């Protein structure tokens, strides 16, 4: 069957290997349908995808079905969550969702097809996958720090260095090395939360929790609320959660906060010190990323305590340096996750971490543009929205 030589912009698709050359050709609207897009007689040749064709403009597009190459798996997407980073990329503010791009990296589904050299997986297997594609060969990968990979790529990201198609589509291709099997007891919508759960578990692991520790979480967004639960699972006896949004603090209480603090800045620090007899908490996890919360985190921990930095809304903050030095406070950055998916699956399956209360809506992929706009406008009482390309049992 003859293959078209040219696809117009609304129907562009990206090669799974995410080459810079292909991305540039795509931006010109001159992408040739190559070997990775199979047109097979008797098979569906197009899929539906939510395409960011220009900033703040999402559309449902018909794109060629991708074909898995060696070591790759084609996943039929059942659910994909809208991440805050997708919303920041929606208007171009992050610089990491350059149109045209299919976003989405928090997903789960079933194996639709396996490529050559794939072993251990069969059509129909229930799976999720890491959002990070690491090379497996650099010095960081060799030490298990796959999140720091020199050649790291992220699904659904399009930036100056690469473009990699994401999972707001009926199908997505991923390397088999980042795929994880899902238990039958875990729904696809819950499994779409595993990427965020793994981020929280990673942050807590880096915080080096001891049984009975007291902790403070600054920011009751998605990562903050999951970190709260991961801290509890790691052995913290007391967990305070601070935010300026009362509705989010209500959720924090529902999922296990010892006490919620509707305060910020010096008022927050004073309240934490009051609750800890002026000692401070053992660990503070900062999940916002602005001056006020980073400063409050440093001022709220005890001598020798740990501040783990997860939030990164702003590129730079002012640090209370003398306090960090003279009180010997450990500052620990935390980026994405590094192999915590099995632990995250275990915590969800056991009920130690609950994500259902954090899911605001489960909606068809076709409603994606409307939900993105609602999230972008910061409509109150919205937490996680999960999009479903199809209803898959």
Per the CATH scheme, the topology name of the largest domain is Quinone Oxidoreductase, Chain A, domain 1
Portion in helices = 25-40%
Query: Based on DSSP secondary structure assignment, what is the total number of beta strands?
Result: 20
**Overall pLDDT:** 89
Q: List low-confidence stretches.
A: 1-42
- The CATH architecture designation of the largest domain is Alpha-Beta Complex
End-to-end gap: 33 Å
- Largest β sheet strand count, sense and barrel closure: 7 strands, mixed
* Strand percent estimate: 25-35%
CATH superfamily of the largest domain: Medium-chain alcohol dehydrogenases, catalytic domain
Shape: globular
Give your account of this protein's structure.
The protein has 393 residues and is α/β, with parallel strands linked by helices. It folds into 2 domains: 9-193 and 355-388, Medium-chain alcohol dehydrogenases, catalytic domain (Quinone Oxidoreductase, Chain A, domain 1); 200-333, Rossmann fold. Helix content is 27%, strand content 26%. The protein has helices at residues 20-27, 84-90, 139-142, 188-191, 194-207, 222-234, 246-254, 265-275, 291-300, 321-326, 341-350, 368-376, and strands at 46-54, 57-64, 72-81, 101-102, 106-114, 126-129, 132-133, 153-154, 157-158, 163-164, 171-175, 179-181, 214-218, 238-242, 259-261, 281-286, 301-309, 330-333, 359-364, 384-388. The strands form 5 sheets. Strands 3, 5, 6, 11, 12, 19 and 20 form a 7-stranded mixed β-sheet that branches. The protein is globular and about 65 Å long. Mean pLDDT is 89; it is low at 1-42.
